[in-house]
Amino acid sequence: MERPLKVVLICHPSVGGSGIVASELGRALAERGHEIHIVSHRRPVRAAEAHPGVRFHEVEITRYPLFQYPPYTLALATKLAQICREIQPDLLHAHYAIPHAVSAYLCRQMLGEGAPKLVTTLHGTDITLLGMDESFYDITRFSLLESDALTAVSEHLAQVTVDRFELDCEVRAIHNFIDGDKYTPALGDPQIREQFASEGEALVGHLSNFRWVKRAPDVVRIFHRIAQKTPARLLMVGDGPELEPTRVVADELGILDRIIFQGVDVDAARLLAQMDLFLLPSEQESFGLAALEAMSCGVPVVASRVGGVPELIDEGSGYLFPMGDVESMATAAVDILSDPQKQSAMAAAARSRAVDAFSEDSQIPRYESLYYEVLGG
C-alpha cells in the first residue's frame, strides 16, 4: 500500500444503502491503516461501533425563524471547511450527490488553493429520483462535473448516470461489498429462530427502509400466497414511510398475526442468518445491498429484475422476475421452501456468490486505487 490517507466521508445517517456503505467503507479503510473522518447530522447506524481509526463529526443544524427549512447544505459545507482546516485531509468522499457533493464543492471554494480532492459515489435514488427532479437536475449535474472522480455502486447505475446527465466523463462502477465474517450462516441459532418461527415453519424475510420503491406491500402479498401453500412466518426488518401501509395490507389479507415487524435497532446479520428466504420485490434497486447481506448469510433471494440486481444475483443463488409479478415470485418461493435439498443448494450458492464476488478484499482496494489515482492527477 502507498502512504496512509486522511479521508473525509460524507453520508446520510439513515438505514439506506448510502449511509451503510459509507460507514462500512470507513471501517474497512481504517483497518487498512487510513485515518477516516465521517461527517453527518447524526451518527450513522453502522458507524456506532468504535474504531480507533474512525472519528465522527456531527453537523449542527441552526434553527432560525427566518428559515422554513434548516439550510443543511450550508451548515454541512461550513462544517467540512472547519474539519479541513483542522486535519488537512487528502480528499473528501461524498456519498449521495445531493446535498453532499454540493456541500463539498462549496467547502472547496471556501478553502481555495490547496483544497482536498473530491470523489462522489452515487447510490441510486440520488440519480434516478432526486437528481432527475426538475428542481435538482442542474445542481446535481453541476456537482457531478465538479467532482474529481465519480463512482456508482453498479454498472447499471453508472450507465444511467452518464446517459441521463449527458456526461462525457467516466463513472466508475465499484460494487457494494460485504464482510463475510460478520454476515455468515454461522450466526444461525435455533434458539433465536424459534422466537420468530415454530418448528416446521419456514421463515421468510425482508429488510429495507420501507420507502415506496421497495414495494413492501408486495412482500406481504407474496407471503400471503406462500402461506397458503406451506407453513411460514414473515420477518420484516426496518422502518420507514411505507411501514403502516404494509401493516394495513397484511391486516386486509388476514395474515397480520403471521408477520413479525422489527425496527432498525437490531442486529441485522443475526436476523438474516435465521431466514430461509429473502424477498426483494423493489421497483428500483441500484444494487441490492440488503440482498447481498442476506446472501452472505446463506439465504437465497427472490427479487425483481431491476437496476443492478442482475449484477448481484446469478443463476443458482436466487430467482429474478419482472417488477410487480407477485404470482411468479410466490411460486418460486414455494418451490424453494418446499424442497429442502434445493433450498440448501441455493443457500450455499448464495453464500459463495456473495463472498467470492463482493468481498471487502475485492472492492476496498478499488476505492484505494481510485484515491491514489485522483491525488496523483
Characterization of this structure:
The protein has two domains: 6-177 and 359-376, 3-Layer(aba) Sandwich (Rossmann fold), CATH 3.40.50; 185-357, 3-Layer(aba) Sandwich (Rossmann fold), CATH 3.40.50.2000. It has 15 helices and 13 strands. The chain is globular and about 65 Å long. Helix 6 (155-164) links the parallel strand 6 and strand 7 (171-173). The chain is of the alpha/beta class and 377 residues long.
Compact overview of the structure:
This protein has 377 residues and is of the alpha/beta class. The chain has helices at 17-31, 72-87, 97-111, 125-128, 137-145, 155-164, 190-193, 216-229, 243-252, 268-272, 289-296, 309-312, 326-337, 340-357, 360-376, and strands spanning 6-10, 35-40, 54-58, 91-95, 117-122, 149-152, 171-173, 202-208, 232-238, 259-262, 277-280, 301-304, 318-321.
What is the fold named in CATH at topology level of the largest domain? Rossmann fold
Considering DSSP H and I runs of 4 or more, what fraction of the residues is helical?
Answer: 40-55%
- Beta fraction: 15-25%
How would you characterize the largest beta sheet?
7 strands, parallel
Number of H- or I-type helical stretches = 15
What gross morphology would you assign? globular
Provide the spatial order of strands within the biggest beta sheet: 3-2-1-4-5-6-7
Count of individual beta strands: 13
Total individual domains: 2
Q: Indicate the radius of gyration in whole angstroms.
A: 21 Å
Average pLDDT, to the nearest integer? 93
Uncertain segments are none
CATH architecture of the largest domain: 3-Layer(aba) Sandwich
The CATH class label of the largest domain is Alpha Beta
CATH homology-level superfamily of the largest domain? Glycogen Phosphorylase B
Distance between the termini: 18 Å
Secondary-structure-based class equals: alpha/beta
Order of helices and strands: EHEEHEHEHHEHEHEHEHEHEHEHEHHH
